[in-house]
């Protein structure tokens, strides 16, 4: 039954996965997928438990071996994965303690709450400048606003030159395709090339910062030090690429998914009138249609049990965030989009070891963006049905056509 319901490559499933996710979740907290050879974890409590359980990990042996990477396993025709593997090898997302702990604590020294707070005026200015370019007669929320906004914010934070943002987007889009469940060979070839070029570009930037220190995030990553030492060059390169990739895609998709939900449910007036603050609205945007739908874990140790089911080491689990965020055991009327709900217990930023490092920045960026749009465009409407990106794991819209005229 599972494989008939869970069809992450099918257009109809991607268009609206929630009825199928509901059926899966209500059939049990843990359902086996023959097709993907893993357990799907469907309910909020169980997804949270998996995120917090140290007997599970994103990789089997502390850090990614080439064979841990899904495309390396599935696309046999490619023999040289080195450039792609080199960036994944040191990515926080692909590490487990103790290496993860060492790198995360170094990155946290550079990526501080104060650095995010200090960025507020720059983020506001970026939103305002882009907002002023939007044609009230018709614009695309994704291409004309969310995409350039988010990439400019993360590039500014890092200290990457702003004239490089188009190139960064191209590299980043190519690499994140590898996180889908079924990447193709041409996509893998593009991702490997992008990894090579991206690494070289970041390496040059790091060289520059080492010669001329500056108070931006790349400069701070070069300086960060604990009693265990500093970050190595490959670690800094991986971290910068991770921050650039993680730092815009999900935020852009939350803007698209969330604003579409707000407008489709007639909730814009509540934000414009101030009845619901943009900060509160952002939480429902994150919950109702999560921009990242699935994360995998390996069982690393003996004795792991979930929902009464013993699962041996070497087995795989896939946590379904969209299913968990609509779990009636965790949220009242979970399928209802309630712009003022303001419930932060959604699973969208994860939890435990890999909890999203950028959550405060993402929340701030989204809050400022919604606020900017509400101040500028009290009448905002969809002009056509937005078009989905044809992918499930990274869930977003290709375009969201809007008009600010009645
Ligand atoms: C709405 C936007 C965002 C969402 C929904 C999101 C979601 C997530 C999730 C679910 C994870 C955990 C993955 C796992 O458990 O396997 C994660 C990790 C991470 N995120 Fe985000 N993220 C967002 C924005 C950002 C931003 C803006 C940044 C940085 C500028 C960022 C940086 C990271 C990093 C570095 C990690 C890895 C942490 C680790 O493994 O220790 N994210 N994110």
Q: What would you give as the CATH superfamily?
A: Cytochrome P450
**Total count of helical runs of at least 4 residues:** 19
Architecture, according to CATH?
Orthogonal Bundle
Bound molecules: protoporphyrin IX containing FE
What's the arrangement of strands in the largest beta sheet?
1-2-10-7-3
Residue share in β-strands: 5-15%
How far is the N terminus from the C terminus? 46 Å
CATH T-level topology: Cytochrome p450
- Average pLDDT level: 94
Please indicate the count of domains: 1
Largest sheet: 5 strands, mixed
Helix proportion? 40-55%
Uncertain stretches:
none
Account of the 3D structure:
The protein has 406 residues and is of the alpha+beta class. The protein has a single domain (2-403), classed as Cytochrome P450 (Cytochrome p450, Orthogonal Bundle), CATH 1.10.630. The chain has 19 helices and 14 strands. The strands form 5 sheets. A 5-stranded mixed sheet has the order 1-2-10-7-3, with helices on both faces. It has a 3-stranded antiparallel sheet with strand order 4-14-11. Helix 12 (185-211) packs across helix 14 and helix 15 (249-264) packs across helix 19. It binds protoporphyrin IX containing FE (HEM). Protoporphyrin IX containing FE (HEM) binds next to helix 14, helix 15 and helix 19. Protoporphyrin IX containing FE binds at residues 51, 58, 92-93, 104, 154, 242-243, 246-247, 250-251, 254, 291-292, 295, 348-350, 354, 356-358, 361-362.
Itemize the secondary structure elements and their pairings:
Layout: H1 2-5, H2 11-15, H3 18-27, E1 30-33, E2 38-41, H4 44-52, E3 56-57, H5 70-74, H6 82-89, H7 99-110, H8 113-118, H9 120-133, E4 139-140, H10 141-158, H11 165-176, H12 185-211, H13 217-223, E5 225-226, E6 229-230, H14 233-246, H15 249-264, H16 268-272, H17 278-288, E7 294-299, E8 305-306, E9 309-310, E10 316-320, H18 321-325, H19 359-376, E11 381-382, E12 387-388, E13 397-399, E14 401-403
Parallel strand pairs: 2-10
Antiparallel strand pairs: 1-2, 3-7, 4-14, 5-6, 7-10, 8-9, 11-14, 12-13
Helix pairs in contact: 6-12, 6-14, 7-13, 9-10, 9-19, 10-15, 11-12, 12-14, 15-17, 15-19, 17-19
The structure holds protoporphyrin IX containing FE.
Protoporphyrin IX containing FE (HEM) binds at residues 51, 58, 92-93, 104, 154, 242-243, 246-247, 250-251, 254, 291-292, 295, 348-350, 354, 356-358, 361-362.
């Amino acid at each position: 039954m599972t494989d008939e319901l869970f069809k992450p490559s099918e257009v109809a499933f991607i268009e609206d996965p929630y009825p199928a996710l509901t059926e899966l979740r209500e059939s049990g907290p843990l359902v086996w997928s023959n097709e993907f050879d893993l357990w799907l974890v469907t309910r909020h409590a169980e997804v949270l438990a998996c995120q917090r359980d140290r007997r599970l990990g994103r990789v089997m042996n502390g850090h990614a071996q080439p064979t841990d990477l899904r495309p390396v396993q599935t696309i046999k025709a490619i023999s040289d994965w080195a450039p792609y593997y080199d960036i994944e090898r040191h990515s926080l997302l692909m590490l487990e303690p103790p290496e993860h702990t060492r790198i995360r604590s170094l990155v946290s020294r550079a990526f501080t709450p104060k650095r995010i707070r200090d960025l507020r005026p720059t983020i506001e200015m970026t939103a305002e400048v882009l907002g002023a370019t939007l044609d009230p007669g018709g614009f695309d929320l994704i291409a004309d606003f969310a995409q350039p906004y988010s990439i400019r914010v993360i590039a500014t934070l890092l200290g990457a030159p702003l004239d490089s943002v188009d190139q960064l987007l191209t590299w980043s889009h190519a690499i994140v395709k590898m996180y889908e469940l079924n990447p193709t060979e041409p996509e893998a070839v593009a991702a490997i090339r992008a990894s090579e070029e991206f690494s070289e570009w970041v390496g040059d930037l790091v060289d520059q910062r080492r010669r001329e220190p500056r108070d931006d995030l790349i400069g701070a990553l070069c300086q960060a030090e604990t009693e265990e030492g500093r970050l190595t060059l490959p670690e800094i390169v991986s971290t910068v690429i991770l921050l650039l990739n993680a730092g815009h895609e999900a935020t852009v998709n939350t803007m698209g998914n969330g604003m579409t939900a707000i407008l489709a449910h007639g909730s814009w007036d509540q934000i414009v009138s101030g009845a619901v603050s943009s900060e509160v609205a952002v939480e429902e945007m994150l919950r109702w249609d999560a921009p990242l739908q699935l994360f995998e874990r390996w069982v690393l140790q003996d004795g792991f049990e979930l929902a009464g089911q013993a699962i041996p080491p070497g087995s795989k689990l896939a946590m379904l965030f969209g299913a968990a965020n609509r779990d009636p055991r965790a949220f009242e009327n979970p399928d209802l989009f309630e712009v003022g709900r303001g419930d932060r217990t959604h699973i969208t930023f994860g939890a435990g070891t890999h909890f999203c490092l950028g959550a405060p920045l993402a929340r701030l960026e989204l809050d400022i963006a919604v606020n900017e749009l509400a101040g500028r465009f009290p009448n905002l409407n969809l002009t056509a049905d937005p078009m989905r990106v044809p992918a499930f794991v990274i869930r977003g819209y290709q375009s969201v056509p809007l008009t600010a005229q009645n």
